[in-house]
Amino acid sequence: MICSLCTTPAHPQPGWCGVPLCRQCRVDLEAQAQQPAPEEPRRVSLSPSYVERCHRLALAGVDVTLKPTAEVIDLTAVRAARLAGAAALLLLALVMFAASAAAQSPQQPYIYDVTVGTSSAQVIIANTTRKRIAFVNSSDTAKIAVCPTLSRRTGAALTCTVNGPGAITLLPYAAFVADNVQQGTLPAAWNAIATASGSALTIMEWE
Questions:
Q1: What is the pLDDT of residues 25-54, one digit of tens each?
Q2: What is the extent of the structural domain holding 72?
Q3: Residues 2 and 81 in one domain
Q4: Per-residue pLDDT averaged across 88-98, rounded?
């Protein structure tokens, strides 16, 4: 007698409705059929040889229940793995952001509380790492003018005058902000002058 699945001489085995099977085919079928199935398989992928064998047995009248093999792909597990990966990337981004924030001083913007008189004088020194600077006229009556300490036109020192050339005049409670251009810096020192002595000027600096 020949095995129903191959050309090897068959050895009768109990439990298969009298279908002749060789010992190797019986062992292979039992091993494949007993592989554990995942809890909630979404898609089943069976090897062609296993499907073909079960099909032959079904045609021979054997009640064969197909069981998923190790190739089962659980889409729920795939989604969970992807979510875990996304969470890990988000955590990494937060850690990098926190490290970047920690690298900056928690005091920024740096605040300079300055009293300005009626003569032009330097109110903030040069800083090669400065990214932004803001001047706020905190006085409720006096005008305050600010300007860099050097004139680009002449290369000479620039004297600050209210409503004068090269100066930026701020009315009471007005503000002026200078930002870096094209990722550059604002390294220059600045002068200031007021129309009244003892006028309050607030300077904010970012690096």
A1: 777 777 766 666 656 555 555 555 666 766
A2: 1-89
A3: yes
A4: 68
In CATH, what number is assigned to the domain containing residue 179?
2.60.120.770
pLDDT at 22 over 50: yes
Would the pLDDT of 140 be above 80?
yes
Across the range 19-28, mean pLDDT stands at 73
Whether residues 115 and 78 share a domain: the answer is no
Residue 166: burial class (beta carbons within 10 Å; 0-12, 13-18, 19+):
middle
The closest alpha carbon to 158, from 122, 116, 198, belongs to 122
d(CA 112, CA 82) in angstroms, rounded, equals 50
Q: What angle do CA 81, 87, 89 make, to 5 degrees?
A: 105
**What separation in angstroms does the CA of 140 have from each of 44, 69, 126, 173, 192?**
78, 82, 28, 6, 17
- The amino acid occupying position 12 is P
Higher pLDDT, 96 or 120: 120
- In this structure, are 198 and 124 located in the same domain? yes
Reported pTM: 0.50
104 pLDDT more than 60: no
